[in-house]
Amino acid sequence: MNYSQMKIKEIDRYLRTLSIDRLQKEISILSTDARISVSKLVSKYNNIIHKHFKELERLQQMSKYEDHLYKKGIKYIAGVDEAGRGPLAGPVFAAAVILPAGILIKGLNDSKKLSESKREELYDIITEKAIAYHVTSVSEQEIDEINIQNATHKAMREAINKLNVSPQHVLIDGKEIGGIEIPYTPIIKGDSLSISIAAASILAKVSRDRYIKKFDVTFPQYGFGKHKGYGTKEHIEAIRNHGICPIHRKSFTLNLINDN
To answer: Is domain 65-213 given the CATH code 3.40.30.10 in the classification?
Structure first.
Protein backbone atom coordinates (compact mmCIF):
# COMPACT_ATOMS: atom_id res chain seq x y z
CA MET A 1 0.00 0.00 0.00
CA ASN A 2 1.54 3.30 -1.15
CA TYR A 3 0.24 5.70 1.51
CA SER A 4 2.29 8.61 0.19
CA GLN A 5 -0.01 8.79 -2.83
CA MET A 6 -3.21 8.63 -0.78
CA LYS A 7 -5.30 11.39 0.75
CA ILE A 8 -6.01 11.31 4.50
CA LYS A 9 -9.68 10.42 4.01
CA GLU A 10 -8.67 7.52 1.80
CA ILE A 11 -6.20 6.22 4.37
CA ASP A 12 -8.76 6.56 7.14
CA ARG A 13 -11.40 4.74 5.10
CA TYR A 14 -8.97 1.91 4.39
CA LEU A 15 -7.81 1.56 8.00
CA ARG A 16 -11.39 1.20 9.21
CA THR A 17 -11.70 -2.04 7.22
CA LEU A 18 -8.72 -3.78 8.85
CA SER A 19 -8.52 -6.33 11.63
CA ILE A 20 -6.60 -5.30 14.75
CA ASP A 21 -3.57 -7.40 13.82
CA ARG A 22 -3.39 -5.91 10.33
CA LEU A 23 -4.13 -2.44 11.68
CA GLN A 24 -1.13 -2.62 14.01
CA LYS A 25 1.16 -3.41 11.06
CA GLU A 26 -0.22 -0.61 8.91
CA ILE A 27 -0.02 1.93 11.74
CA SER A 28 3.62 0.97 12.23
CA ILE A 29 4.25 1.79 8.56
CA LEU A 30 2.27 5.04 8.74
CA SER A 31 4.17 6.22 11.82
CA THR A 32 7.12 7.06 9.53
CA ASP A 33 4.96 9.41 7.43
CA ALA A 34 5.99 13.03 8.13
CA ARG A 35 2.61 14.58 7.35
CA ILE A 36 0.98 16.17 10.41
CA SER A 37 -2.47 14.96 9.35
CA VAL A 38 -1.16 11.41 9.14
CA SER A 39 0.43 11.72 12.59
CA LYS A 40 -2.99 12.65 13.96
CA LEU A 41 -4.50 9.66 12.20
CA VAL A 42 -1.80 7.39 13.65
CA SER A 43 -2.58 8.75 17.13
CA LYS A 44 -6.29 8.10 16.60
CA TYR A 45 -5.76 4.48 15.61
CA ASN A 46 -3.18 3.86 18.32
CA ASN A 47 -5.89 4.84 20.80
CA ILE A 48 -8.30 2.40 19.16
CA ILE A 49 -5.70 -0.37 19.38
CA HIS A 50 -4.98 0.46 23.02
CA LYS A 51 -8.68 0.36 23.92
CA HIS A 52 -9.07 -2.95 22.10
CA PHE A 53 -6.34 -4.65 24.12
CA LYS A 54 -7.51 -3.07 27.36
CA GLU A 55 -10.99 -4.47 26.72
CA LEU A 56 -9.49 -7.85 25.82
CA GLU A 57 -7.57 -7.86 29.10
CA ARG A 58 -10.76 -7.00 31.04
CA LEU A 59 -12.68 -9.83 29.41
CA GLN A 60 -9.86 -12.30 30.01
CA GLN A 61 -9.89 -11.30 33.68
CA MET A 62 -13.67 -11.89 33.74
CA SER A 63 -13.08 -15.36 32.29
CA LYS A 64 -10.90 -16.62 35.15
CA TYR A 65 -13.67 -18.63 36.84
CA GLU A 66 -14.62 -20.27 33.55
CA ASP A 67 -10.99 -20.90 32.58
CA HIS A 68 -10.34 -22.58 35.93
CA LEU A 69 -13.22 -24.99 35.30
CA TYR A 70 -12.24 -25.63 31.68
CA LYS A 71 -8.78 -26.69 32.86
CA LYS A 72 -10.48 -29.30 35.04
CA GLY A 73 -12.15 -30.77 31.95
CA ILE A 74 -15.56 -29.18 32.52
CA LYS A 75 -17.03 -28.28 29.15
CA TYR A 76 -20.47 -26.82 29.85
CA ILE A 77 -20.56 -23.99 32.39
CA ALA A 78 -23.78 -22.08 33.01
CA GLY A 79 -23.84 -18.52 34.32
CA VAL A 80 -26.98 -17.58 36.25
CA ASP A 81 -28.33 -14.21 37.35
CA GLU A 82 -31.60 -12.48 38.13
CA ALA A 83 -33.26 -9.15 37.41
CA GLY A 84 -36.03 -7.55 39.41
CA ARG A 85 -35.49 -8.31 43.08
CA GLY A 86 -36.10 -4.72 44.13
CA PRO A 87 -38.94 -3.30 41.98
CA LEU A 88 -42.41 -2.59 43.29
CA ALA A 89 -44.08 -4.22 40.31
CA GLY A 90 -43.75 -7.15 37.96
CA PRO A 91 -42.12 -10.58 38.12
CA VAL A 92 -38.56 -11.41 39.02
CA PHE A 93 -36.67 -12.82 36.04
CA ALA A 94 -33.69 -15.18 35.93
CA ALA A 95 -31.49 -16.35 33.08
CA ALA A 96 -29.03 -19.19 32.62
CA VAL A 97 -26.47 -19.07 29.82
CA ILE A 98 -23.83 -21.52 28.58
CA LEU A 99 -21.23 -19.73 26.45
CA PRO A 100 -18.67 -21.44 24.19
CA ALA A 101 -15.24 -21.89 25.73
CA GLY A 102 -12.87 -19.01 25.02
CA ILE A 103 -15.49 -16.61 23.70
CA LEU A 104 -14.85 -12.91 24.38
CA ILE A 105 -17.80 -10.66 23.57
CA LYS A 106 -16.72 -7.04 23.37
CA GLY A 107 -18.57 -4.83 25.85
CA LEU A 108 -19.93 -7.73 27.92
CA ASN A 109 -20.38 -6.57 31.50
CA ASP A 110 -22.73 -6.39 34.44
CA SER A 111 -26.06 -5.26 32.94
CA LYS A 112 -26.32 -2.43 35.49
CA LYS A 113 -23.17 -0.86 34.05
CA LEU A 114 -24.54 -0.76 30.50
CA SER A 115 -26.93 1.54 28.68
CA GLU A 116 -30.28 0.15 27.56
CA SER A 117 -29.21 0.26 23.91
CA LYS A 118 -25.97 -1.59 24.69
CA ARG A 119 -27.85 -4.25 26.62
CA GLU A 120 -30.19 -4.76 23.67
CA GLU A 121 -27.22 -5.06 21.30
CA LEU A 122 -25.47 -7.58 23.54
CA TYR A 123 -28.69 -9.54 24.07
CA ASP A 124 -28.77 -10.36 20.36
CA ILE A 125 -25.09 -11.34 20.31
CA ILE A 126 -25.36 -13.53 23.41
CA THR A 127 -28.45 -15.38 22.21
CA GLU A 128 -26.80 -15.96 18.83
CA LYS A 129 -23.47 -17.17 20.22
CA ALA A 130 -24.63 -19.13 23.29
CA ILE A 131 -24.53 -22.92 23.30
CA ALA A 132 -27.74 -22.78 25.35
CA TYR A 133 -29.77 -20.24 27.28
CA HIS A 134 -33.09 -20.00 29.07
CA VAL A 135 -34.95 -17.11 30.68
CA THR A 136 -37.76 -17.63 33.16
CA SER A 137 -39.78 -15.61 35.65
CA VAL A 138 -41.81 -15.87 38.84
CA SER A 139 -44.93 -13.72 39.00
CA GLU A 140 -45.64 -10.84 41.35
CA GLN A 141 -48.46 -12.93 42.87
CA GLU A 142 -46.06 -15.73 43.74
CA ILE A 143 -43.53 -13.23 45.07
CA ASP A 144 -46.22 -12.07 47.51
CA GLU A 145 -46.91 -15.68 48.49
CA ILE A 146 -43.40 -17.04 48.99
CA ASN A 147 -41.33 -13.81 49.36
CA ILE A 148 -38.82 -12.30 46.96
CA GLN A 149 -35.81 -14.37 48.01
CA ASN A 150 -37.61 -17.68 47.54
CA ALA A 151 -39.09 -16.45 44.27
CA THR A 152 -35.67 -15.40 43.00
CA HIS A 153 -34.13 -18.75 43.90
CA LYS A 154 -37.04 -20.56 42.23
CA ALA A 155 -36.54 -18.57 39.02
CA MET A 156 -32.81 -19.33 39.03
CA ARG A 157 -33.39 -23.05 39.52
CA GLU A 158 -35.95 -23.14 36.71
CA ALA A 159 -33.61 -21.28 34.35
CA ILE A 160 -30.91 -23.88 35.01
CA ASN A 161 -33.22 -26.89 34.79
CA LYS A 162 -34.78 -25.77 31.50
CA LEU A 163 -31.52 -25.37 29.59
CA ASN A 164 -31.54 -27.67 26.56
CA VAL A 165 -27.91 -28.55 27.27
CA SER A 166 -27.18 -29.83 30.78
CA PRO A 167 -24.44 -27.81 32.48
CA GLN A 168 -21.68 -29.61 34.36
CA HIS A 169 -21.08 -26.65 36.65
CA VAL A 170 -23.01 -23.47 37.45
CA LEU A 171 -21.71 -20.03 38.37
CA ILE A 172 -24.33 -18.08 40.30
CA ASP A 173 -24.43 -14.39 41.13
CA GLY A 174 -24.74 -13.89 44.88
CA LYS A 175 -24.84 -16.32 47.76
CA GLU A 176 -25.65 -20.02 48.00
CA ILE A 177 -29.15 -21.20 47.16
CA GLY A 178 -30.77 -24.53 47.87
CA GLY A 179 -32.18 -27.12 45.53
CA ILE A 180 -29.43 -27.18 42.90
CA GLU A 181 -28.11 -30.68 42.31
CA ILE A 182 -25.41 -29.64 39.84
CA PRO A 183 -22.09 -28.50 41.35
CA TYR A 184 -22.12 -24.72 41.58
CA THR A 185 -20.08 -21.76 42.73
CA PRO A 186 -21.76 -18.67 44.21
CA ILE A 187 -19.89 -15.46 43.42
CA ILE A 188 -20.68 -12.19 45.17
CA LYS A 189 -20.95 -9.47 42.49
CA GLY A 190 -20.47 -12.24 39.96
CA ASP A 191 -22.06 -10.19 37.19
CA SER A 192 -18.90 -8.06 37.24
CA LEU A 193 -16.49 -10.97 37.72
CA SER A 194 -17.69 -13.73 35.35
CA ILE A 195 -18.51 -13.47 31.66
CA SER A 196 -21.12 -16.22 31.98
CA ILE A 197 -22.93 -14.48 34.83
CA ALA A 198 -22.63 -11.12 33.04
CA ALA A 199 -24.28 -12.67 29.98
CA ALA A 200 -27.08 -14.04 32.15
CA SER A 201 -27.56 -10.66 33.82
CA ILE A 202 -28.08 -9.04 30.41
CA LEU A 203 -30.60 -11.64 29.24
CA ALA A 204 -32.56 -11.39 32.49
CA LYS A 205 -32.54 -7.58 32.54
CA VAL A 206 -33.50 -7.11 28.88
CA SER A 207 -36.23 -9.76 29.11
CA ARG A 208 -37.73 -8.16 32.20
CA ASP A 209 -37.55 -4.63 30.81
CA ARG A 210 -39.28 -5.73 27.61
CA TYR A 211 -42.02 -7.41 29.63
CA ILE A 212 -42.64 -4.45 31.95
CA LYS A 213 -42.63 -1.86 29.16
CA LYS A 214 -45.70 -3.53 27.65
CA PHE A 215 -47.72 -2.39 30.67
CA ASP A 216 -46.96 1.25 29.93
CA VAL A 217 -49.84 1.08 27.45
CA THR A 218 -52.23 -0.78 29.78
CA PHE A 219 -51.46 1.34 32.84
CA PRO A 220 -50.02 4.62 31.50
CA GLN A 221 -50.57 6.48 34.78
CA TYR A 222 -47.69 4.58 36.44
CA GLY A 223 -44.89 5.26 33.92
CA PHE A 224 -43.67 1.66 33.67
CA GLY A 225 -41.89 2.37 30.39
CA LYS A 226 -39.62 4.80 32.19
CA HIS A 227 -38.82 3.26 35.58
CA LYS A 228 -39.53 -0.43 34.76
CA GLY A 229 -41.36 -0.89 38.06
CA TYR A 230 -38.62 0.34 40.37
CA GLY A 231 -39.46 2.58 43.31
CA THR A 232 -38.70 5.97 41.83
CA LYS A 233 -40.28 9.10 43.27
CA GLU A 234 -42.57 9.31 40.23
CA HIS A 235 -43.69 5.69 40.65
CA ILE A 236 -44.37 6.03 44.39
CA GLU A 237 -46.41 9.19 43.79
CA ALA A 238 -48.43 7.37 41.12
CA ILE A 239 -49.19 4.55 43.55
CA ARG A 240 -50.32 7.01 46.19
CA ASN A 241 -52.51 8.85 43.68
CA HIS A 242 -54.01 5.87 41.84
CA GLY A 243 -53.55 2.90 44.16
CA ILE A 244 -51.97 -0.31 42.96
CA CYS A 245 -52.62 -2.13 39.68
CA PRO A 246 -52.65 -5.91 39.00
CA ILE A 247 -48.89 -6.16 38.39
CA HIS A 248 -47.86 -4.44 41.62
CA ARG A 249 -46.35 -6.57 44.37
CA LYS A 250 -48.71 -6.11 47.30
CA SER A 251 -46.05 -7.06 49.82
CA PHE A 252 -43.90 -4.23 48.46
CA THR A 253 -46.53 -1.53 47.96
CA LEU A 254 -49.36 -1.70 50.51
CA ASN A 255 -47.29 0.16 53.07
CA LEU A 256 -46.92 3.02 50.58
CA ILE A 257 -50.70 3.39 50.41
CA ASN A 258 -51.15 3.01 54.16
CA ASP A 259 -48.50 5.67 54.82
CA ASN A 260 -50.26 8.13 52.55
So the answer is: no
